[in-house]
Amino acid sequence: MSRRVFRALALALALASSAATCEQCEQVSDPRIGNVDRSTDAVLVTGSDGHSYLVSAHPELEHLRVLDLTTERFVDAPNRFFSVSVPVGPSTRRLAAAPADGTRVYALDGALDVVQVLRTVDDAGPAFARVGSDVVTGRAPADLAVWADGGGVELWVTLPDATATAGAVQVLDLAGAELARIALPDGARPDAIGVEPTGARVVVTDAALGSVHVIDRAARALERSVEVGGPSGALAVGVVDVGDGLAPVALVARRDRAEVALVRLFREGYREDGAALYGRAELPSLPLTLYVPDHRASETVCCRGLSDEAIDAGEATAAWGAAALASGDVFYVALAAPTTDPTRRLVRMIDDDLEGLGSLVDLNTEDAIWVPAAGGEDRRPIEVTLSGRDTWGTPPVVDIVGSGEAPLLTWEGTIPGLEAVGGASESAYLAGVFSAAIDVAALGARVGDDAIFSIDEVPLDCEGRTLESPITAISGATVEVLRGLDGLDEDDEGCIARGSGTTLTVLAANAFVVELADGSSAGRLNLVAGDAENELVLPGAALTMKASANGEPLRGSLLSIPLDPNVTPMGLALSKAYNSRSGGGFGAAGLLPTAIVGGEMDFPDPASEGTLRARRMVVTTASPDASSGLFELFACDEAETTPSLCTVFR
């Protein structure tokens, strides 16, 4: 090769190298795209550089992603064409960090049975890299919480299958030494775990039992179990003002129904139980993940979209939490909302509609809702009234009325579960006593109700006969009826004796039997003014009525009560409506929420080209946007109700 050719080749290589180096120096990646894929959990930390970082778990990628919320861009990898991605195990789904130390994130892998440690930003080495050795846990851990103070780092892990009869909570240090193993009640299957912000208590949900478990962190011992109504899953801990001062609280999601429960935890200096159920509230859909802010330093008042009228009525509150639902929506829940009784507080959805539960029609004049039995057209009840009332009981459980709910009232209708009840033997009826195959009393039959007997093979001379008698006594499955005058006579009992396959149906006496749209019963409603059963309790209201001057309705008369729930829940609608071009709906654009985290942070201010500081929250999702096919994270102000004001990261 000639010297001239060699020099030309060297110059070309140098220019190419210079161009490549220049490209590497440029910020070439989209700051809001990190190819996040499906996320299962996230944690928010503040590094030693003062930046707020969101670290999210993505098991299908077997990596963690890192979003710098202070610059609103994904952290670059050494090769700036890509965002940083930290390799982890094949089932790394749960993340945690110690409240006082934002330089480390801890990742739990339920398949490898280890906790992996990630450095965020400090002066000890490269940022966003695995450090140290993995900490080995017990078999098949479910969730992880972390506490750190002068005494070192504590890793709290739930082990659902610790023993044959119950799960346990394991406490480890970073060297892998087991500091404690806390036994839970028989049958317990611990799931989510969280350390409340003050560090005094650890809360554990239970996927099997109907209670959550409260552990004294310093003593490393089970303190008490608090009944929440059923098995529980997701958990959020925070500090809010529950009406008489700040209190650490745990918001718990039920596994078996669309409901949350709030547990107030121990407070120094208060004369009260160490932990107490404050209330439960129904939600429109199953809650998947929860968030409660920590208001010890600053607070956010919920909610931004409330009308002035709703704010004036007291709907705005600093005692709030967020529940992300299977529908793809985030709804805000008032924690310890005020009532007419200043000593009581309720857990319920925040509502922008000031109207209480009402009816869609005039209950006293609308013809379509009254279907009388033949001959009873003039016996329609009068003064049918729905009145707003605090009817939630103790502990309060605040239900919501579904749209289109219309309780159906049947006068002297069949008591649910007591239609065609079979006998315990061939001779089930004998001398006024019927022996049922089930506990009749437990299903609500009473003395005075009407017992109707049916026979499978009716003797010819008994056809058309009504075998009916008032109940005079009930004991479990044994039902006694009146014999003789106004009861079963000898001919009636002869028909029963000569027939076969006797069954019993019980009708409520002198009352409506109330059935809800889901087939369940709301009980009885009579027309005796002042009687306890002259009031039908509904969520937030009570139904009462009186008999017509012409008398009570005839048996089988129907009255339906079409209800208007008048509820406009406040929340953040992440799901996208269907359209023919981009699709939509759950699983495609439902943007299934998987985690909500939040707190004070700095974020860019385009107007000043500097930063602003405010309370913000981030929602991670596990289903893609239909139009882009990408998975999304949303960063919003706390209690935001307008999705377009959230910043979207993909």
Explain this structure.
This protein has 650 residues and is mainly β. The protein has 4 domains: 26-183, YVTN repeat-like/Quinoprotein amine dehydrogenase (Methylamine Dehydrogenase, Chain H), CATH 2.130.10.10; 217-353 and 568-650, no CATH class; 358-413 and 511-564, no CATH class; 421-507, no CATH class. It has 3 helices and 49 strands. The protein has a 7-stranded antiparallel beta sheet, covered by helices on one side. Strands 1, 2, 3, 4 and 5 form a 5-stranded antiparallel beta sheet that branches. Strands 6, 7, 8, 9 and 10 form a 5-stranded antiparallel beta sheet that branches. A hairpin with a 5-residue loop joins strand 15 (190-195) and strand 16 (201-206). 42% of the residues are buried. The model is unreliable at 1-24 (pLDDT under 50).
Please render the helix and strand layout as text.
Blueprint: H1 3-25, E1 41-46, E2 52-58, E3 63-68, E4 73-74, E5 85-87, E6 92-98, E7 101-109, E8 114-119, E9 129-130, E10 135-136, E11 143-149, E12 152-159, E13 168-172, E14 178-183, E15 190-195, E16 201-206, E17 211-216, E18 221-227, E19 232-241, E20 246-254, E21 259-264, E22 276-282, E23 287-291, H2 308-312, E24 320-325, E25 329-338, E26 345-349, E27 358-359, E28 370-371, E29 382-388, E30 397-398, E31 408-411, E32 421-422, E33 429-430, E34 433-435, E35 450-454, E36 467-475, E37 478-481, H3 490-498, E38 503-507, E39 512-515, E40 521-525, E41 536-538, E42 541-546, E43 558-560, E44 563-564, E45 571-573, E46 593-605, E47 610-621, E48 633-637, E49 647-649
Parallel strand pairs: 22-30
Antiparallel strand pairs: 1-2, 2-3, 3-4, 3-5, 6-7, 7-8, 8-9, 8-10, 11-12, 12-13, 13-14, 15-16, 16-17, 17-18, 19-20, 20-21, 21-22, 23-24, 24-25, 25-26, 25-45, 27-44, 28-43, 29-42, 31-39, 31-43, 32-38, 33-34, 34-37, 35-36, 35-38, 36-37, 39-40, 41-42, 46-47, 47-48, 48-49
